[in-house]
Amino acid sequence: MSPALPEGEPVPDDGALPGWVRPAAPSGTARPGAGGERAFGVYVHVPFCTVRCGYCDFNTYTSSELGGGASQVAYADTALRELDLAARVLDDAGLGGRPVSTVFFGGGTPTVLPADDLARLLGGIREAWGLAEGVEVTTEANPDSVSPESLHTLADAGFTRVSFGMQSAVPHVLATLDRTHDPRRIPDVVAWARDAGLDVSLDLIYGTPGESLADWRASVEAVLATGVDHVSAYALVVEPGTRMFAQVRRGELTLPDEDDQAAKYELADALLSAAGLEWYEVSNWARGGQTGPHASRHNLGYWRGDDWWGVGPGAHSYVGAPGAGHEPEPEHAGVRWWNVKHPRAYAAALEAGHSPAAGRELLTADDARLERVMLAVRLHDGLPVADLSARARTAVAGLVADGLLDGRAALRGQVALTLRGRLLADAVVRELTD
Amino acid sequence: MSPIPSQADAARIHPAATAPELLRNFCIIAHIDHGKSTLADRMLQLTGVVDERAARAQYLDRMDIERERGITIKSQAVRMPWAAAPAPGEKAVPYALNMIDTPGHVDFTYEVSRSLAACEGAVLLVDAAQGIEAQTLANLYLAMENDLEIIPVLNKIDLPAAQPEKYAEELAGLVGGDPEDVLKVSGKTGEGVPALLDRIVELVPPPVGDADAPARAMIFDSVYDTFRGVVTYVRVVDGRLNHRERIVMMSTRAHHELLEIGVISPEPIPTKGLGVGEVGYLITGVKDVRQSKVGDTVTNAAKPASEALGGYSDPKPMVFSGLYPIDGSDYPLLRDALDKLKLNDAALVYEPETSVALGFGFRVGFLGLLHLEIVRERLEREFDLDLISTAPNVIYSVTLEDRTEVTVTNPSEFPAGKIREVREPVVRATILTPAEFIGAVMELSQSRRGDLLGMDYLSEDRVEMRYTLPLAEIVFDFFDQLKSRTRGYASLDYEPTDEQVADLVKVDILLQGEQVDAFSAIVHKDKAYAYGVMMTAKLKELIPRQQFEVPIQAAVGSRVIARETIRAMRKDVLAKCYGGDITRKRKLLEKQKEGKKRMKTIGRVDVPQEAFIAALSSDSAGGKDSGKDAKKK
User: Fold this and answer.
1) Of A306, B288, B513, B529, which one has the greatest count of Cβ atoms within 10 A?
2) Does the keyword Lipoprotein apply (chain B) (predicted)?
3) pLDDT tens digit sequence for B434-444
4) B216-300 fold
5) Dist. CA B544–CA B219, nearest whole Å
């Protein structure tokens, strides 16, 4: 969750969506050729952590920071209220009845909630819309906030996947990141999760102040030693307002330069590829790649422009207009909204029977096209050249010549990044959008 | 001695009816800051032309910039009555004094020379705490060449730091005469000013002209006024000019009707005409100062003079610079603004120019650096424009192998083919400096290809040094350097003299093989390398990394003399882009794309305009900064 909420227009108290999202088909049924074609996912934000890490700018709180209806104990009930509201709003918009393809619990640290609470929330989702055949249900987890028992409870409740915030295998790097877990615990928690039948992903962070290339190699190798099928690796970004930002400003920490980050990215990609984990998005690798069984289908939904409802404080939601992604209406291509950020305000809105949304934006076709290029280009398979504007298409040859786009893919009519292009993806996007 | 006492006396000096022997035409030669305007104000008060309360401080300086900078750009003439004894011991009689204000700066030497030509006498006004400055000295020599009666005066004697005895010696030495005869005044308190007015009556010769000859009047200034059109200031040399008659401008043969004629005292007062020896103004309804040129001769259309007065020449721009709006959409505003300034500035020339780096702008010719600065400042202030100006350069005459002659006013137009010779303008520079800085001045002048012509001690510790210098070396940062090396004490004056053949080359700056026109420079061969190294290093600092490696080269012709490389950017990607990041990320992208639109593209290299501006404006960083330091001291 990004730190500050965007500027937007107000959302009605009842959370009603604009009329134009309504499909032509009668309400209550999946509409053909519109929303029904797009997958529908649910994101549940859990805004709690036991410790706030120095680099973290997410919307999360330690237990001592909150109370009342926003407390950890009451949180599941509060979020269930939003699920009720969501079911009603989508139903009213004629978008009900679509079973949920993917669910993702993120945070924060979802596993600071009792596994039973997480199970109850998943139950609420099932009740609201039903779960699709082969649904993917992921939760993020801290290596020190799970046990074999809790993981079994989750698997029994219907969870299929767990993503552990490992970040590094090197103690001094973890210390700089304020991570409290013991890196030696990682192989154990991976093994427990697999025992419970869960697909496992590990998250890594590279470019932490003081991290050497050798440190980074050790972390990647530690990940590979666990044999997981999915890895995410993120460059550390130090956002204003975080404790680490202040430490850097005071000169207590020195950030690595972009060359160091690039070298680490390239090293990770080499090691992961050699071990059979294929990149499928700029920061994600999975055995079997983008279309394989281990890629995060929930996250793919974001990058492909699917619909999703985000539950929880600060969570964003998106519903495309009928035909969005193909030939959207010029004015109305989709609507994105976001909830109030603070858990107390969030709880208060729901207790009062209001939508907790703080604002929304109505996307034009131009916005939607920009987002489509911006998001799809990050994927291994990229997007068809045909989806680009006429002007942007003329830029493709130059980007191939610069080694940023894959030439063979371009010949097949597909825009896809090379390794160098992945590191310069934002520059590529600027070239490919008007 | 006193203002005019009686009606009868006043009638004797009525405009258009004053006997030449009752006229005194004089000017004040002074350096910026030496108190000329304050003294002029005091004279206006003492002669009763303005009362103290009505007097705007420094009445003669009209434009805001002049007021702020304390300098006079445009001269004007004020008629003041004064009763004085024609010689010591005789009875006081009324006189009409015409005070002709002169521009004080080197760039306006031609205008100064015309103002001087309108006078018979000059007050040499020098700050009693500072002594004479180089520009004042140059104007003094000009006045002496014009055979003017010089009245040496020390001003600001009220200042604690004044050293009247010391500088009286210096002035007496320059003008000839006794230090005792140097008047000591304070424009601020008024002390000594009546005596100065008496001295003017006593010493300045009355004008001599043929009252019956065909009219000849010399234009010594020409000012555009929004309401009245061009107001032309003249000195009648022979004959007389009358209201409503038709006149001819002798250089252009243009005919005009005298819609209004009069004197300034201190506001315009229309009269029936102007008689021989008198100074006043004309209005003919023209709208552009180019139709009423300084130095030109006005005569009567019905009874024209056969020969124009001497000394006329067209203003010749010496220094050129490209002026570009920082916001490209301001280009039409800049054009309109220049068109407006041109109405009042006969020396301003410009033509449209396009730069790959800077977009659309104008190549503008100026009389000198101060002229450039004034014009630029007026454009920014009065027309609210944000401008960038390229490094100033001079005019080069290039002869190609095939004897073709090319005049280069913009370095990027320097011919590429076989060159036989390049000629550059040279100036005769006068530098006044405390003796302790002789070595520093010599060192600087030699490093700027100067030839020492001679050196004289003005007093025990003040030296006048004369050099021949290429103008190009002066327009770079010579003045700043001079100030910084002499702790602000040296002063400089120069006048164009000639051309010289020099070993000059054009250094181009190339970005990924593409020439960046704004950075081409014509420099002496020995300095080409230093320029190349400096500019490539600077651009390397200022231009952001691109998706590819960008070589920056400095080249003379096809020979690369310096090179830097901007390494390719390696990482430009947001690590996380999930549901909650999309809106923010899209807005960021839109912002970046807006930013990209404002960039200039050289070949494939995107360069923020700020980079060009920074590279151009800090051109002479070393000199300018140290110059500022010197001023602080």
Assistant:
1) A306
2) no
3) 999 999 999 99
4) Elongation Factor Tu (Ef-tu); domain 3 (2.40.30)
5) 55
